[in-house]
Each structure stands twice: as C-alpha cells, then as structure tokens.
C-alpha cells in the first residue's frame, strides 16, 4: 500500500463508541440550531472558476433560507452577493446557472445592477425621491477561492480562511492541476432523500460498509481502501485499483482503459481519492475526472444530494471512456448509499433503537459527531429535551464549556 504524505489522527485505543442519540436526527428545534451554528457559519462550496468563464456568467446557491449568486464582473473578478433585490427582496437571477448581458435586471420591478453588484438605477427613479444609489447595491457575501473552487459562507464562523483550512489538501490539488479543469454537464444530478442530513454523513464517513454494501468499489479497490482523519474537520479516504483485473463489467473495463498518470505523485496514481470537508461536502477525484458533492439540508427530514462534475481539458477518447465507466461505478455506489441512509435514519424512530456501537473502522463517524457536539452541546444529552427548551438548554450548556 502506498504511504500517504499526510499528518493524520490515529484511532485511540479506548474511545467512546457511541454515536449521537436518535432524537438529534428528528428534532425541528435542533435543526434550527444546526442551520444557524453549523451550516450558515461554515464554508460551502458553490462551483469552480471554470463554471463562470465570461463576464456576466453566474451561479446561484440556496441554503436554508439564504440565497446567493456568484458572478463574474466586467473586470473579470468573481464576487458573491445575496440573491436579493434591495427594493423588495426578489431574486435578481432565477435558476442554478446563467448569463447576464452587461447588467442584472430584477424581474419584479426592473431595478438594474452592474455586474460588480452596484446599483445602476431603479426603474422610474423619480418615484423614489432622493435615493442614494451607493446605499442600495447588492449585499456582498464572504467568498474565497481554492485552486479555482469557489467557497462562501453566509455568516462568520469558527473555521479559518479557506487557504488555511484546506492547506493539508494543497499539494494534492496542485498535483491534480485543478485550476485547469472544465465542467461536464450531468442532467438532473440532484436527488432529495427523506432523511436527516447526518444520516447521509454517517454512511459516507466510514469505509467499514464498503466490502458488503458496495460490490463495485470492493471489486475495484476494496483490498487497499483506507480512511484518514485530519484536524479542522478534514478527512481523506483512498483506494488504489489495478492490482487485480476486476470481475464486474464496468470495473474490468475501467481498469483496462484508465490511462496511467505519470504526472501524479505515487500516492495518487491509480487512486480514487475522497476529501471530506465539514460539515457535509466531499471532493471525489479519480485519474480520469472529478466531482464535488454536497448534502444540502432542506428540513430535519429531507436532504438534497447534489454537486458538479468536471474533467481535464484535451481529454483523449480513452480517458473519456474511462471517465464514463467511473461514472457508472459511482452511480451504483450512490444508489447503495442512499438506501443505507434511509434505513439508518428510519431506525431511529423505533423504540428498539439503542444507539450506535462503532467499530474502529467507523471512527470518522465519531469525529464528525464530536465536532457537532462541540458546536451544539445539547447534542450530548441522551434523552431529548422538550422541543421548546432545546435552544435555551443549548445556550446554557454552551456557557459551561
């Protein structure tokens, strides 16, 4: 097995193998706290620089009542704003991606904004009396970029800047030359699952289930799969393929077709790597292409799985076929994980459910739960408080830590 060049956290000899209590997966009051203390205050990935190559190109991103638009200005600079007209709050752009010619026009009353977010002017300006346009530009959102990927957060939070947060991934992302990637269109890559977002993460944060639940991945790299844990909510999982030809059709042909990548360091050659970022984002990179996927909470009982797919430029026919086969393997794996998340989530409503008892191979689940407990101490309680008391109890426990 190739040695990984990362500072990682070892699994302790004696550790608490319990997971979060079942009530934390079905509480509307707790979900409201997660919105404010976990999702809006942590970095969220929106897309890549290549998704908006021209002035006026934009991406939108919605999260728990907040709406963002990321747009490239006439000066070539990428900026993030609240997707909210300063007149009556309408969306200034609609849809997930698009292009504005020279300006942004609110579809409600026709206020016009420049591509840098400044207000060019309202429609029928005399009806507003003395309106100072400098006071009514689109509201900016904190945004930073990492190897071309665009991150934003709606409110200040405990994470450092993106460059510092993702510094352990810097060498790998540079080796992959992620600044040069181009987008791939995958129709309707979005699915809503009837589960709490943490159930999706619980499945994805460990590889203990791979041998039985994912026959395709086990066939591809199961003998070499390893999970690594870093600080600041980062993790990495990797499996190397090609030591055996593979039994399944997709795996067998993928291992034959995937061209070598001598440009990559040894630990990334013939490797499928997954880089997890707290609270609910993953970069999945193979020698043939990459994607990020994002678990977007809609409510305490609904989670949207979505993301974006990319490839390297000047793709050969061989590489394109390998990328398609990797997509087939990943699509089957995703469907398997979705079913596991549903089963796990629904079990917590049963009176017979007594909580998790985690393997050393599931230490990533515990680390994710501990990070949530640090942010929301009320999650340490085994028994659910009254819904109308959860916020107050959490505030009181926060003062004690």
Question: What would you note in describing this structure?
Answer:
GO terms for molecular function: dioxygenase activity. It comes from Gemmobacter denitrificans. This is Aromatic ring-hydroxylating dioxygenase subunit alpha. InterPro entries: Rieske_2Fe-2S, Rieske_2Fe-2S_sf, Ring_hydroxy_dOase_asu_C_dom, Rng_hydr_dOase-A. It is a single chain. The model has no long low-confidence stretch (mean pLDDT 94). With 401 residues, this protein is of the alpha+beta class. It folds into 2 domains: 1-42 and 169-401, Naphthalene 1,2-dioxygenase Alpha Subunit, Chain A, domain 1 (Alpha-Beta Complex); 43-156, Rieske Iron-sulfur Protein, CATH 2.102.10.10. It is built from 10 helices and 18 strands. The protein is globular, with a radius of gyration of 23 Å. The longest helix is centred in the C-terminal third of the chain and has 31 residues, at 317-347. The strands form 4 sheets. Strands 11, 12, 13, 14, 15, 16, 17 and 18 form an 8-stranded antiparallel sheet that branches. Strands 4-3-2-5 form a 4-stranded antiparallel sheet, with no helix packed on it.
């Amino acid at each position: 097995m190739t040695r990984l060049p990362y500072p990682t956290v070892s699994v302790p000899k004696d550790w608490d193998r319990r997971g979060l209590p079942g009530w934390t997966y079905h509480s509307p009051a707790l979900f409201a706290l997660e919105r404010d203390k976990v999702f809006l205050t942590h970095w969220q990935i929106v897309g890549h620089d290549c998704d908006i190559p021209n002035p006026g190109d934009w991406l939108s991103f919605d999260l728990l009542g907040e709406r963002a638009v990321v747009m490239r200005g006439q000066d070539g600079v990428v900026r993030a704003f609240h997707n909210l007209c300063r007149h009556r709050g309408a969306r200034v752009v609609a849809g997930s991606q698009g292009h504005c010619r020279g300006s942004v026009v609110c579809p409600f009353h026709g206020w016009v904004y420049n591509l840098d977010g400044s207000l060019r002017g309202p429609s029928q300006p005399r009806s507003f009396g003395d309106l100072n346009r400098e006071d009514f530009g689109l509201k900016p959102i904190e945004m930073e970029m990492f190897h071309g990927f665009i991150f934003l957060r709606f409110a200040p939070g405990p994470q450092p800047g993106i460059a510092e947060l993702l510094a352990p991934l810097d060498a790998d992302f540079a080796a992959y030359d992620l600044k040069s990637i181009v987008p791939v269109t995958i129709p309707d890559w979005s699915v809503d699952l009837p589960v709490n977002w943490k159930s999706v993460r619980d499945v994805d944060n460990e590889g203990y289930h791979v041998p039985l639940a994912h026959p395709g991945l086990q066939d591809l790299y199961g003998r070499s799969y390893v999970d690594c844990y870093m600080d600041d909510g980062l993790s990495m999982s990797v499996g190397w393929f090609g030591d055996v030809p593979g039994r399944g059709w997709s795996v067998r042909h993928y291992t034959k077709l995937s061209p070598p990548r001598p440009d990559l360091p040894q630990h990334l050659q013939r490797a499928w790597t997954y880089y997890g970022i707290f609270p609910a984002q993953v970069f999945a990179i193979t020698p043939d292409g990459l994607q990020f996927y994002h678990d977007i909470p809609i409510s305490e009982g609904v989670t949207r799985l979505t993301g974006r797919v990319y490839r390297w430029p000047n793709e050969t026919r061989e590489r394109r076929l390998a990328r398609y086969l990797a997509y087939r393997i990943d699509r089957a794996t995703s469907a398997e994980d979705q079913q596991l998340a549903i089963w796990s989530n629904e079990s917590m409503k049963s009176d017979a459910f007594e909580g998790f008892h985690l393997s050393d191979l599931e230490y990533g689940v515990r680390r994710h739960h501990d990070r949530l407990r640090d942010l929301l101490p009320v999650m340490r309680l085994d028994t659910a408080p009254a819904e109308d008391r959860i916020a107050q109890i959490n505030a009181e426990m926060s003062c004690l830590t």
